[in-house]
């Protein structure tokens, strides 16, 4: 019996190779979040440079290694609590089919490779990646148990991805671009909290005590505020400075459609528990994001 009252499960025999279980626990589908590292490549107009593109992709790969290391550590620390979650209980560590010690060794190796590869990209990028790693560790141990602070930490992680992407290719990320990315992250984080609270209902506290503070009325208000702030900040960004010179204001309707589609999924279909799954599975959302990226890229080449 675990200290928190949850029953510890004995290891379950499993025929899958350890490497396959480690890969599943590393959550490669979540790597799409690290696409934020590529945002400065697009908006700095460096995407036509092969050297800058390769640096940005290498930076994204470093973030993938670090984020997977954090996922493994998180799954080890939360393995008892995850067994109270209908989906997370299927993760290899929570299910008892991947040894925590093996996962921790893999996490250490991934972190070492990620930070080591960052040094080859550049010192500035390495410092930002180290800062991101420290933030994620602090989040894992402390911040995720603090209401509002948890979602702010998640948003800060996305902002650091953008700053790191800019550092990797030697450009500056504008204040408005960072604000837009942070607000998008806030919107996704509040959507995730809403889904978790509704999915777990009375059992939310058993999985994570902070979820009881995310009442439907509160989360709904924060989602609406984040969505409105995202659209307003992007409108300002696209309508001023160099973005205005490239007529990026033409992409504002696509942002409106994208945000609207996400809100539809959250409120009508009760989705949002995993924004990355939506990014892989919802065709209208995928099409909208793709059209936004292609249109932005085309306008920035004019």
Keywords:
about 300 residues; single chain; mainly alpha
* Largest sheet properties: none
User: Helices and strands, in N-to-C order?
Assistant: HHHHHHHHHHHHHH
Report strand %. Answer: under 5%
Low-confidence stretches: 11-15
Structural class: mainly alpha
Mean pLDDT: 89
Query: Ends: how far apart?
Result: 64 Å
Radius of gyration: 20 Å
Helix content: 55-70%
Number of helices: 14
Number of strands: 0
State the oligomer: single chain
What general form does the structure show? globular
Explain this structure.
This protein has 14 helices and no strands. It is mainly alpha-helical and 302 residues long. It starts with 17 loop residues before the first helix and ends with a helix.
Question: How would you concisely characterize the structure shown here?
Answer:
With 302 residues, this protein is an all-alpha fold.
């Amino acid at each position: 019996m675990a200290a928190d009252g949850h029953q510890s499960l004995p290891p379950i025999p499993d025929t899958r190779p350890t490497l396959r279980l480690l890969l599943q626990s590393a959550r490669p589908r979540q790597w799409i979040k690290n696409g934020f590292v590529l945002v400065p490549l697009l908006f700095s107009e460096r995407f036509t440079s092969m050297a800058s593109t390769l640096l940005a992709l290498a930076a994204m790969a470093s973030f993938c290694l670090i984020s997977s290391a954090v996922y493994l550590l998180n799954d080890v620390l939360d393995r008892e609590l995850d067994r109270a979650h209908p989906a997370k209980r299927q993760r290899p560590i929570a299910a008892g089919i991947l040894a925590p010690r093996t996962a921790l060794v893999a996490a250490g190796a991934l972190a070492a490779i990620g930070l080591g590869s960052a040094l080859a990209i550049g010192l500035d990028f390495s410092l930002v990646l180290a800062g991101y790693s420290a933030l994620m560790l602090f989040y894992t141990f402390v911040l995720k148990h603090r209401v509002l602070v948890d979602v702010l930490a998640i948003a800060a992680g996305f902002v650091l991805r953008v700053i790191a992407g800019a550092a990797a290719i030697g450009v500056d990320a504008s204040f408005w671009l960072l604000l837009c990315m942070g607000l998008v992250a806030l919107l996704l984080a509040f959507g995730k909290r809403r889904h978790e609270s509704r999915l777990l209902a009375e059992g939310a506290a058993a999985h994570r005590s902070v979820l009881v503070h995310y009442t439907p009325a509160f989360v709904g208000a924060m989602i609406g505020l984040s969505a409105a702030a995202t659209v307003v900040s992007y409108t300002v960004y696209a309508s001023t400075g160099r973005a205005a010179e490239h007529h990026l204001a033409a992409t504002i309707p696509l942002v409106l459609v994208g945000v609207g589609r996400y809100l539809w999924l959250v409120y009508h279909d009760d989705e949002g528990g995993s924004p990355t799954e939506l990014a892989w599975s919802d065709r209208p959302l995928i099409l909208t994001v793709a059209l936004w990226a292609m249109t932005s890229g085309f306008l920035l080449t004019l």
